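Hello everyone,

My group is preparing for a crystallization screen and wants a predicted model to guide construct design. The compound we'll soak is nicotinamide-adenine-dinucleotide. Before spending weeks at the bench, it would help to have a computed complex in hand. I've included the protein sequence and the ligand's SMILES below. Output in structure-token form would be ideal because that's what our pipeline reads.
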Amino acid sequence: MLWEGALLPAEVTNNTRRRALVTGAAGGLGREVALQLAARGCAVAITDINAQGVQETAALLRERTGDVEAIVGDFTIEGAPEAAVEKVVARWGGIDILVNNAGYGVIEPFLDATFKAWTRTLALNVTALAMACKAAGRVMREQRSGRIVNITSPGSRMALPDYTAYTASKAGVDSITRAAAVALAPYGVLVNSLAPGMMDTEMQRSTEIDLARAAGRNDLQAFLDERTRRIPLGRRAEISEVAEAVVWLCLDSPAYMTAERLNMSGGLDKD
Ligand SMILES: NC(=O)c1ccc[n+]([C@@H]2O[C@H](COP(=O)([O-])OP(=O)(O)OC[C@H]3O[C@@H](n4cnc5c(N)ncnc54)[C@H](O)[C@@H]3O)[C@@H](O)[C@H]2O)c1
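Reply:
Good plan to model first. Here are the tokens for the complex, ready for your pipeline.
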């Protein structure tokens, strides 16, 4: 069976157009995924805590499609993920694609861990993501179709003592992906995750600056180069190529593929 999202933009009609929600789309990977989905003919809703970034992404989307829903807010507030899904359904009558991309992380040595950092990290990366999967999953169950893609990290399977709240939260993403995939499989709804390698986004830049500081390294560029050399393909990921793989999971991957984790890390993550 061919998922109708595989249609080319010129073939998309009101009956076949996919309705998508991308979280954390004020910049970085989320913005690029939103733009690529719009280029493939999807109606796209975006959400982020960064109001200016949301406006910028929405303006870029409007150049590609008239159909944009922009939602500004903190996704960790109780009820926010459910409200975002409800907005999409109210606007377009359903939801076909959810990309859980919003993420937060802070460098903090394990023995200096703070309640604040752990709570904030888990509230977004785990709890809000699970609530968004639940809310979209309920609508997709009724529709008997839909696709959810959760953004995880190679870190979810690493021991990183300066970044444990984040890596633990991404291990949570992997766990939620497997559970949601099984819960929604009887309804033909697919749930997969994607682990990006190092992309030079805002989040990655500030994380690596803090990581260098925690490691007592003043030679930032040398530190970054060493990290890049550890990637088997020998370079960092382009945001656009990682987004292409997310869009593939949203629109083109085979209907038998669910509960899968796709590594887009240049060989860093090998299973
Ligand atoms: N950049 C990398 O190298 C890399 C590697 C592995 C995984 N990832 C994951 O990719 C995803 C996208 O990250 P990115 O690199 O594009 O960084 P980014 O900082 O551009 O994107 C994260 C977005 O989440 C938003 N956000 C943060 N807290 C929020 C909240 N409480 N409510 C709503 N939105 C909130 C931010 O405003 C930001 O726009 C994240 O899940 C990240 O963990 C990134």
